[in-house]
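Quick one: co-fold with fe (ii) ion.
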Amino acid sequence: MAYSWDKSLETGNITIDNQHKSIIESINNLLDACSQGKGRSEVENTLKFLQDYVVKHFSDEEKLQLKSNYPDYKAHREKHEAFKKTVSEIAEEFNKNGASIQLVAKVNSSVAGWLISHIKSEDKKVAAHIKASSQK
Ligand SMILES: [Fe+2]
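Sure, here it is.
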């Protein structure tokens, strides 16, 4: 199953939205690589891309939060850290057991599922705050 970006995920901040679109695309690439039996190096490449891109995205998003004095910065950052840990654990699990059904299930629930609910609940608040503070 492929994930797609739609209006329900729109935060209204173009930088954040574009990066979210890229993360969703890279989750789809990872799931494709796992389910189409594309071989170890393809899964490794997509996993590495996702990991690096998530780090970059969180860092950019956290900078925007700091710049706009986002009041919930600390708690939000902790959520990002926990997610980075989850992605690392998935990479470790892949190194141990390969692209198993359990791994694909974890990517669906703990990566795609987490991201979608994080965008809807947390990142929308961030984008609204950035917008409000830029209009002051
Ligand atoms: Fe976030």
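If it helps, Residues 61, 76, 80, 118, 122-123 surround fe (ii) ion (CB under 6 Å).
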